[in-house]
Write a structure and sequence with these properties.
- The chain has helices at about 30-40, 85-90, 105-120; strands at about 15-20, 65-75, 75-80, 125-135, 135-150, 155-165.
- The protein has about 180 residues and is α+β, with helices and mostly antiparallel strands.
- The protein has a single domain (about 15-165), classed as PAS domain (Beta-Lactamase), CATH 3.30.450.
- Strands 1-4-5-6-2-3 form a six-stranded antiparallel beta sheet, with helices on both faces.
- Pfam families: PAS_5.
- This is PAS domain-containing protein.
Amino acid sequence: MDKPPSPDPARRKRPLTILPADCLDDLHDRRLQRLYDYWRERRTGAAMPTRAAIDPLDFRYILGYVTLVEVELAPRRYRFRLDGSILAMLSGMDYTGKYLDELGMPDYIDFVASSYDRVVDHLQPYAYRKQGAFDTKTFDEETVILPLGHAGTVSHLLVAVIPGDLAPAPGKMVI
């Protein structure tokens, strides 16, 4: 199935704030930092760990906020292999088994696809904090996207999304 054309980003109705553009070195949420540290440990000298090197039981503390995304390369598409139970409850929609381009939210799809593309193209993790609206939904979250694969090819993305306040008190981390 061919990927539908991307909608015009000018359609966005309300402004979106992303601060900073990449906050991997400044994650506010401690669970995200722990997951990122776990990912780095599992790399064992490689650019990224393989899918087999990751055991979800090792990160039970954040599991409900984690989504596993399968990367299809030709044509490039993203399939949600597993959507975290807390994320599904908060969004009112379980993405498990669905493709990103089938979600029916064009502005959201564009933003997420470009974030995923960045990780797949550069073979490096990426994190952001964003607040604003896509389509008819409001978002307030901190997200980390971690590539999994081997031999310079990303096969999966381990994505963790923590909704909530983007501006915690100085020096305070969410546990």
